[in-house]
Amino acid sequence: MLTRIDHIGIACFDLDRTVEFYRATYGFEVFHSEINEEQGVREAMLKINETSDGGASYLQLLEPTREDSAVGKWLAKNGEGVHHIAFGTADVDTDAADIRDKGVRVLYDEPRTGSMGSRITFLHPKDCHGVLTELVTAAPSAPADH
Ligand code: CMX
Ligand code: CO
């Protein structure tokens, strides 16, 4: 069951400058940052609020590490902006299988590693009314999905 907005993914050209915008404008601080080479991103997670399922909602600021990555290609075509939304679930495997059964393309056979050791998969934007949609199960130690 999908129980929260886990994060909104925002593509940017310069992560440090974008982090500074969110800090200076809204007061949001970096909760976590990492490089995910498999996804081709350098990212910063800004925690916005805790959620009623024991998890949290974040902004995920994304700078591509290479031009041929998903975010690199998207930025070249669209410029900066909202790249994807992510729903949180305690069981990404079951939710992804259920959604696949409904005829929506799930991009990975098995969930891959996302922010903070989470397990993630994606739904094809062309099957989701133009919205690239991610499903996330937080790592057991992370503040989510208990
Ligand atoms: N939102 C909406 N539509 C998108 C999109 C996005 N983020 N990315 C691509 N599309 C659309 C394109 O506009 C294009 O549409 P048209 O054919 O009408 O022009 C179509 O999808 C195909 O796009 P493409 O540029 O040819 O790109 P690819 O097919 O090579 O890749 C996708 C698209 C969704 C398969 C790829 O972006 C992907 O695998 N995404 C999942 C991984 C990812 O996004 N990782 C980064 C975030 C990591 C994280 O969140 O942790
Ligand atoms: Co994401």
UniProtKB/TrEMBL annotation:
<protein>
    <submittedName>
        <fullName>Methylmalonyl-CoA epimerase</fullName>
        <ecNumber>5.1.99.1</ecNumber>
    </submittedName>
</protein>
<feature type="domain" description="VOC">
    <location>
        <begin position="4"/>
        <end position="138"/>
    </location>
</feature>
<dbReference type="Pfam" id="PF13669">
    <property type="entry name" value="Glyoxalase_4"/>
</dbReference>
<dbReference type="GO" id="GO:0046872">
    <property type="term" value="F:metal ion binding"/>
</dbReference>
<dbReference type="InterPro" id="IPR017515">
    <property type="entry name" value="MeMalonyl-CoA_epimerase"/>
</dbReference>
<dbReference type="GO" id="GO:0046491">
    <property type="term" value="P:L-methylmalonyl-CoA metabolic process"/>
</dbReference>
<dbReference type="InterPro" id="IPR037523">
    <property type="entry name" value="VOC_core"/>
</dbReference>
<dbReference type="GO" id="GO:0004493">
    <property type="term" value="F:methylmalonyl-CoA epimerase activity"/>
</dbReference>
<dbReference type="InterPro" id="IPR029068">
    <property type="entry name" value="Glyas_Bleomycin-R_OHBP_Dase"/>
</dbReference>
<keyword id="KW-0479">Metal-binding</keyword>
<keyword id="KW-0413">Isomerase</keyword>
<comment type="similarity">
    <text>Belongs to the methylmalonyl-CoA epimerase family.</text>
</comment>
<dbReference type="InterPro" id="IPR051785">
    <property type="entry name" value="MMCE/EMCE_epimerase"/>
</dbReference>
